[in-house]
Input
Amino acid sequence: MKMIYMDNHATTQLDPQVLKEMLPYFTEHYGNPASRQHRFGWVAEEAVESARNKIAKVLNAEPNEIIFTSGATESNNLAIKGIAEAYAPKGKHIITVSTEHKSVLDTCVHLSKAGFQVTFLPVDEFGLIDLNILEREIRNDTILISVMYANNEIGTIQNISAISRIATERNVIFHTDATQAIGKIKIDLKNSNIDLLSFSGHKIYGPKGIGVLYFKNKFPKIKLIPQIDGGGHERGLRSGTLNVPAIVGLAKALELCDQLMDEENRRLLEYRNKMQSEFFANIENVFLNGHPTQRISNNLNLSFLYVEDTALIMALKDVAVSSGSACTTANAQVSHVLKALGLSDNRIHSAIRFGLGRFNTAQEVDYVIEKVITEVKKLRNLSSYKSKKVKT
Ligand SMILES: *Cc1c(COP(=O)(O)O)cnc(C)c1O
Output
């Protein structure tokens, strides 16, 4: 059975072109970039610096603003804990959003146990924060605002330029988790008010275990306290021997995303819209979760009311999608994102996330449309759906 992968918010398939670039750095060029005394080290260092330059170029940043980490989870931890530790003498208040990824939320919870105060902003029914509420919550002791660029469950894109402008105007450092936005939304860091930005290799058709924290080099200089101590790699901000093949791969993956962005967004949007309209036309009681338009191109989060998410996932068999209830981890918790939208339990327990990607084909899309329509109808016939009073 050939599986169809439609879970591209969880991870993506490594692009063969990325793998090709990485391979020599596993085999012949295995040097440690920190080895300054021989050619093996120089070759590895050159590869790392070339990757850093490429990443900086795509994002319109300076190479020395790019810090390599093990992924977006670590980047988020470093950004939030690193700023909190550096600015604690100035204030201990942090603002973030209730729909953030766990790597932001749990980091903030950790800090709140260590004496920081965290405001978790609410979102509206589409997943957007209210800028007036943000303005109101900023205090004299607010040191950091962290708002994700695009949500990994519902795809909603926050108004990052307005949010980061407010932060800068109020003299508060601004961080964004851009893991789902990078490669899909053009980001120009020099012409932005973003101070710190996190992303990951494996969400952009690159390798797992590699990520970036962009850290703006501005005047007056922002302080960041490293969270991993050691040999002083990455300008002392993140010690540990650099993962050279993964760094080379991440840079290639980002370059490819940048080159393909317009074409890919157009294609995925077409697939997404087709799926959405076919489901709405052929199945009753379907609801869209997230923002109808302010949403990344590859995301489709739908509730098929009165069809248990897990039952539909089982029935789909050869189609890999995600449920709304167990999104980020292995534990079957109710999605904190869908809950934050204020959705009913019925909506939450019937939510399915389709995450389209580079390697999905038009045939796959058609197959999934057919399959989902058939299985939803079958499951509803099995259940007492018809006798149920429909309530959203
Ligand atoms: C996947 C993801 C992360 C975590 O990235 P890792 O590199 O797997 O640690 C963080 N934030 C968002 C929005 C994500 O989608």
